[in-house]
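Two quick folds needed for the group meeting slides. Do the first one here.
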Amino acid sequence: VRLEESGGGSVQSGGSLRLSCVASGYTYSTYCRGWFRQAPGKEREEVAGIGGDGDISYAESVKGRFTIPQDNSKTTLWLQMNDLKPEDTAMYYCARCLGGYEYNIWGQGTQVTVSS
């Protein structure tokens, strides 16, 4: 399985971006999917995720601003990011849990930069 993110870029504070993650290869037995981010000097954090039961969860820092649209297909995962803030600046990664409930497939990431 290969994951490829796109949609990152540079925006001003208050702007929006829509990230996409396309999966190729064997995508069956996917138990969860999600978005993570990592800023320089900081640990990677989970931004949003879809569990095996279909429930979507969000980090407190992005609730009300980021959403995973309900029109996701089995091979594409989106992340709609609104009202972006400088602290959202990070490399964003999508990931999948394949064959279990731990994230074990990762994309290469797409950079998001928000200026004030």
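Then this one, please, same format:
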Amino acid sequence: VQLEESGGGLVQPGGSLRLSCAASGFTFSSYAMRWYRQAPGKERDVVAYSSSAGGSTFYADSVKGRFAIDRDNAKNTVILQINSLKPEDTAVYYCCAVSGNLSYWGQGTQVTVSS
């Protein structure tokens, strides 16, 4: 089982990034997908969720209207489009696959928002 995030980096406030998570080793279409983030000294919090078929999504209030989650079950990938970035969005972003009591995590990708 592998989840590999990519797309993080350093971006100025107001900028955008497109994070990608590539999955392998399990039946991706059977798993809900979540994006979490963890800032230094803080807990890891969920920011976006997609149901297994992609028909249902959820966003944390702090990112609603700026972040968008999208999945492609044919390509075993999930995307997090993040717009209008703020310094407080600086964190390591993780993708997570969840099905019942099973969960798989990626290693994370760093997003730094700074001028």
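Slide caption for protein two: The two ends are 37 Å apart (CA to CA).
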